[in-house]
Amino acid sequence: MNARLSFFVVVSLMLSRAGSILAEGPDLADLAPARTVAFLELHDPPALAREFHALIKGSYLQRPDLLFANHMKKGKKINEEAFLIPWICSPEFIDEMGGWQGGFLALTGLTKNDQPEIVGVLRTGKSRIFPLALRMILLESGIHCIARVEGIPIFQIGDAEKPQREIAQRLRVPAIQLVRLLRSPPRPSLYQVALLENAAIEEPDEKPESGLFLSLLPDGVAFGTTPDVLSDTIRRYKSKSSAPSLTIAPAFRAASEMRNRPGLFIWSDPPRLTQFIDEALHRKLERHKSDIRVQPPLKDGKPDAAKLREMLQQAELDHRSDTQEWRFLQKAANLAAMYYAATSWSLHKGEFSFRVEARMRDKQISPLLDILANQKLSSEFLQAVPGDAFCLFAIPLSDGATTLARLLKFADAFVLQSGEGTSLPSKEIAELEKQLKLRLGRDVLAKFRSAAVAVHVVEDKEHSVYPVFILEAVSENAAKDLVSAWPRLCAMGGKRIEPHRHALDGQEVRSLSDKPADSSLSGLPPHYGHRGNIVVLGWHRTHVGSVLRSNSHKKDLLNLQRGLSTVDAEGAVSALGLFSCRQLLARLTDIGSTAPNQGAGHRQELRYLRELSTPMALMPPTLFTVKRLADGVRLEFRQSELPVASATVVDIALTWLLDAETAPSAWLSLLFGAPPAPPGAAPAMAAPAPIAN
Asked: Which of 226, 356, 588, 591 lies in the 20 to 30 Å Cα band around 130?
C-alpha cells in the first residue's frame, strides 16, 4: 500500500508542475523551433478543470467523508487501494490542475545515433508544491550543472547516453525520500533547495550529445534530450532568439481549430517525419552491413568474398522484409504529399471528443482516401436495426462495384510490395466469380445502398453475443436477387446447399444449417431473409426472424430517445458507429436476474447495474464517424452530455470498487471473460443457495 501510495504522490506532484511560465507568457508553440516535426500540447488546463468539476458535481468525490462513512464500517472488508482514487480525482487536485498554464513536448529531429531529439516546457502557474519536490529530486539524483544559458543553469541528470532504466533507478530513491519528506519535512533540506540556482558549472571531459537535461525557469521547468535543443528553448523563453518558431508554419496554423479546445493536441508534419524514419532505417541497415564487413566470414583462414556478398544480400532482403508494411503505408496514404496530421482529445461543454484529421496538399490524392465516399444513411435503413442491439457500425455503399475494384487494387499493391510471390487478390476474386457465375461488384455490391452490423446479447440456452448484418438494397427486386444468390456465395464454388424455409414471427427465414444458432460464428451467416428492400443475415435463426418482424415497428435507434436524431445530425458520412452503454447494462441486468443461485454479492451487482443504466437512458449514444473531406479525412469519437450521468457513474464505480462482497460473477464474464485462477489454487466452493424467508 505504501509503495503504491508513494508512486501516486510523486506522479501527481509531477503533473502539478504542468504549467509554469506566466499566464501572460508567449504561445507555447513560440517556444518550439520551426523544424519541429511533431508537437504535443496540454491546452487550457483551467477550462479543463472546470469541465472535470462539472463531471464530479454531487458525487462522492466532492464529499469523501460520506464515502468513508459508508464503507469503513466495523468488520467489513475494504479494498483499500480504491481509496487512492478519491484523492487523485479530488476537487483539490482538480483545482491544482486548474492553476496550470499548459505544457508541450516537441520532436525536433534525431541525433547522430538516431535517438529522438525532444524538448518540452511545463508551465505551473499557481503551483507551489512541485518546485520544492523537483528541487529535492534534483539534489538527490547526482545531477551535474554543465552550462548556463541566459543566466539559467542546465542540469544533466545521470550520465550522457545512459539507458532510461538506469536514470529512472537513480530517481527512484529520491522520489521515495520525497514522500517521506512530505509526511515529516525536515527543516535543513530547505536551505539546500534555496541554493540550487547557485550550483557551480562542472566542466565535462566531453560535451554530452544526448541524455536527459533540465532547467528550472523562473516560473516553470524546461527539459530536453540534448543540451543544444534545451539551450535554444531557453533563449526563446527569454526572448533572445530570432530563429523562427513553429507558429509561423502554415501547416501548423491550419490545424488551429483542433487546438483551441481544452485538452490534449498532437500535430505532425508527415513528409518530414517520414523522411526522418526512412533515413534512420537506412542508417540502421548501413551499420548492420558495416558490422558484417568488419568481421567477414572466413574460409581456410581467409575472408570468404562469396559468403560475404551472400550475407550482405541477405541483410538487404531482411531490411526490405522488415520495412515492407512501412513502405506500403507510405504509398497507400501518400505521406509525402500530406499537409499535416493532427489529433485532439478534448472535454468541452460536457462533451468528450477524440478527433483525428489528415489533410493533403493542394491537388494531391491518396489511394486510401479514394476508397471513402460520404452518403447519408436513410431512416428506413436505420429502423431495421434491432432494438436490443447495444452496438452498431454502418457504411454507405454509394458505388459498391467501384469501391470493390479500388479495394482489390489496394490489396494487389500490398501483395506486390511484400514480394512473396503469392497470388494477387484480384485474380483470386476473378476465379471465384467464374465458379459462382456472377460478378461480385456488378451483381451484388452494386445493388445495395448501405450495410450495417449490429451487435446484441441473445438469451438462449446460454447467453452469447451475436452480430446481425443488415443490408439496404436499391429495390425489393435487388433484395430478392441477393437472397437467391446467397446459397451460391456461401458454397464458395463448392457443392451448393439448398436452404430450409422456416416461418418465425410471421417472417420467412431461410437456413443453410441445421443448427438454429452457432455461437462460434464460423463461416458466412447461414440464416437469412428479407422484408421489402431490407436483407438480414445472422448466425441465430430466431433472432433473424425477430429483426425482420421488428423492421415494421416504429422505434428509436438502440432504444435511446435521441438515437435517430444523433445520426441525422451528422449528415453524410463514410462510416458511422453507435454504442449504447445503457442498452448493454440493461441486457446484462436482465440476464443476471434470471441466473440461478443468486447470492448477496450477485444481487448487489444487479443493483449497481440498474443504477448505472438509469441515468444513461437520458444521454445520446456514443458516436463514431468517418468523413471524407475535400482535402483529407476526419475520424471522430464523441460522447456528449456526460454530466447527466457522470456523478451516478462515479458513485457506483467507487462503491463497487470498495465493496469486497461483489467479486466478478460468472454471468458478467460473458463479455470480459472469466479471470484466470492463480497457479495451484484450489477450486472455489459453490455459493450456497439463498435461504427462503
From this structure: 226
